[in-house]
Structure formats: C-alpha cells, structure tokens
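Troubleshooting: if your tokenizer reports a length mismatch, compare your output against this known-good record of 100 residues.
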Amino acid sequence: LVNDGAKECSGVCHRHSDMEAPAENLTSLRNLTPGQCGRVVRVKGTGAIRQRILDMGLLPDVLVQLERVSPAGDPLWVKFQGSHLSLRAKEAETVLLRLE
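Known-good structure output:
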C-alpha cells in the first residue's frame, strides 16, 4: 500500500459509525440458536478466511438466519439473501451480528 500522507482510518468516521455498537449488543454467528436471525455488523480477523466469508456475501447489513447446527457442533448451516451456506464453527465465530 502507498501511504499518501492520509491518516489511517480510526474506525470512528461516518462510514464505521454503525459498526461501533457496544460489544454487549453483538454476538457471533456461532452463538445463535437454530431459527435465530441477526444482521452482520462486521467480520473479524484478516487473511484468507475473512476474505472468503466476505466473498460469499456475508457483508455488513446482511440479514442471516441460522438454519441448523451439526450434532457435533461443526458445521453450521445459514441462510441469507436466498442462499444457503455451510460454515465451520471457527469461521462462524468471526462473523459478528446484531440480533434481530
């Protein structure tokens, strides 16, 4: 990345203001129970796993419903925007939601 003298984002600009909710109002996708819904606030972490989740469409403000969880707890099946997706529990932990 080229630094053109601009300050790095502090996360408090208007672009991020809706994502600065108190932590007690957020939960991870992994913590939902089947049938529960939440709106994506952000995807934690960096790297390939985070990018893969974003590429699949789990973007901020998307409504997600947990459909079911494997008896062993891994994987989880979710539904959003007419799509169905299976995620590992570790991946689901990185998706932070505001409950609906």
